[in-house]
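Reopening: structure tokens for the phosphoric acid mono(formamide)ester complex, inputs below.
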Amino acid sequence: MKKSLVSITDFTKEEMLRIMDFAAEFEADPCQRILLGKVIATLFFEPSTRTRLSFESAINRLGGRVIGFSDTNNTSVTKGETFHDTITTIANYSDMIVMRHSLEGAARYASEIAKVPVVNAGDGANQHPSQTLLDMYSIKKTQGTLDGINIMMVGDLKYGRTVHSLLQAMSHFKTTFTFVAPPELRMPDEYKQQLYDLGIPYTETTDIGEHINEADIVYMTRVQRERFLDLMEYEKVKNAYILKNAMLADTKPNMRILHPLPRVNEIDTDVDDNPKAYYFNQTENGVYVRMAIISYLLGVKK
Ligand code: CP
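Re-run output (same inputs, fresh job):
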């Protein structure tokens, strides 16, 4: 039976840990040609740099082939072809579909249509589960464990899909959360309710300095300009938080700064050379984790 990864909640805790183990094996030995003969479609209805190219790098490194598009302007979508017909057709050409779309629920719908597994590479403000697994891998590598971590999430917690998926995944690991956002971009109630129901502690503040010295992970996010209906509202909050090197002076020695990227200006470039800056290492981890996700879903890794 095919298995897709549309929401991080599609994976059990045990499956997440298996992905961590597979990713570590791929990091130690990235040249395993276990996708020879496989074709994977990357369908990006919305722009991407890291997610598309790290998936394509992962597929190429494992010996598979990639088809797809990064811009629907060169596809029959421009002639009025429906999403249903596009997905049904491409499922006939490929062994797996990796897709990004601006509409929440698009990946779930694709997974119901397609006869091959679907990986959600981001659907609107909803979910970005492969990013979450690479974030978890980055946490495990830098902290030595996933258990009992204090995570401070900063920025656009309303529209940022990566924080929604990460909150759900880390809820399995006795995490303590601090949410730092302007009132307009707070973590949505449905996610806080999930924490409440599970008895998981969280703190909310608008002040980035209030809890930064307690954090093991500071997870910065970009204000998601593309999700705002009124750009005047974006202008009001776009510079809400800018992390600077001087703010890190009294942070914990083990603390690491993650960011799914792209960055606009929420992390000053003077942080980049600080040993606590981990966001570019995080991008490399994405290749190993995406190797792990693909090989797990296709059942090709022994
Ligand atoms: N982290 C992430 O999703 O980056 P891209 O938008 O560049 O894929």
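The chain is about 35% helix and 15% strand. The chain has two domains: 8-128+284-298, 129-283. Marking as resolved unless the reporter disagrees.
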